[in-house]
Design goal:
By secondary structure, this protein is mainly α. The chain has five helices and two strands; from the N terminus they run αααββαα.
């Protein structure tokens, strides 16, 4: 379900958050689907349960999941989440284009890379 990249410079919990966001937004995880327990996912990924707990907390704060005490976490889906994700992606693209401009990389060259 989730694959971590240990060469990635981001913290593990951020990678977990991103993977779940993607699964939810793509519809792989349907609304009201139960998430794996903290312990089982931590065991599966061979990481500390506190890392998963932190990721689940962040997902809940962002509105991607909700928790029911004693039952676990569940997927929450609404159209606003997709719009938020699109806005974040646009911001990231703006940063890439800004950096490319600073490095004098021609726009055409960037567009060719995107097409590939």
């Amino acid at each position: 379900m989730i694959m971590l990249d240990y060469k990635d410079t981001r913290p593990i919990y951020e990678q977990v958050v991103e993977k779940f966001q993607t699964l939810i937004l793509k519809g792989v995880l349907e609304p009201d689907a139960q998430l794996p327990s903290v312990r089982s996912l931590a065991f599966e990924l061979s990481i500390n349960p506190n890392t998963i707990q932190r990721a689940y907390g962040e997902l809940e704060r962002q509105g991607f999941i909700y928790t029911i005490k004693g039952r676990g976490g569940f997927v929450r889906y609404n159209e606003n989440l997709l719009e938020i994700r699109k806005e974040r992606l646009k911001e990231q693209l703006a940063e890439v284009f800004k950096e490319a401009r600073e490095l004098n990389i021609p726009l055409q060259e960037l567009l060719e890379q995107v097409k590939e």
